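Marked as duplicate of an earlier ticket. Keeping the data here for the record.
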Amino acid sequence: MNKTSLTTQKIVRRNVELPFNKNEKFSFYYEDNAAVASLFVVLSAMFPPGEMFFIDSIRNVRDKIDDEKLQEDIRNFIAQEAFHSREHKSLNKNIEIEYPEVHQIESKTKARLDELRKLSKIDQLAATVVMEHFTATLARLLLTDPLIKKKTTQEKRNLWEWHALEELEHKSVAFDVLSAIGGNTVRNRRKALIRVVRMIAPITFESWFYILKRKDIHFSLRDLKEALYLGFGGIDRLGIFTKTFIEMLDVREKNFNPLHMQTGLLELEYREKLFGENGILNQTLRS
């Protein structure tokens, strides 16, 4: 077991309930850019089934864990992911009139994950390790990318910043569990990477393109260029998805460890911003 991971983790259970205005059109980033908003709609739709798969893959093997600290981490991991799933479901329900594709995307994601559920418990957990590294990397970029900070309001970022913070807090739990049960091998992680890229990753872009083809989704060529610049980059930058996919390949390395992504200071910054003495999300916390 990776003892370093266990001693440096700070995972906090926060029951956050965010209000969503049903009369307000969904937008995220460049506030009036439908091309970008549609991409975040897809991500939100994929999160609930994904998070339930993560929870289940760890629950499958938690009875094999003797370490009390890791058991505590597992409990907090499950709580965090369950709350994320609930709040994204709430957002998805709020936007499904404008984006009826949400239900289809959720169903397709669940169906692909159900295929992974047919694998061994170790293979399922290895897939979670890969996907958790993806979400943690994406989380770090969502919190640090200057374009997102420049082009969004805080209200629109609340859900994503809270979710991103907690993805960073629990980024090594699945890895620690896989290590503890003897399944953390390069071979297992590489197989999982291939499965995730083949089965799950295409849903994001297939669904996004499907929404963009709708005649009632209006965006300019400039809007599309801005969306591609944010997600995939240009001459002067790598986009958040390009960076995330490149860094996801780290799981193939022999010495891979999620904690190599050193985000301690970033986590401290956002814990204080969101939940500190004057935290902007304190009023959303429930017991």
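See parent ticket for discussion. The radius of gyration is 18 Å.
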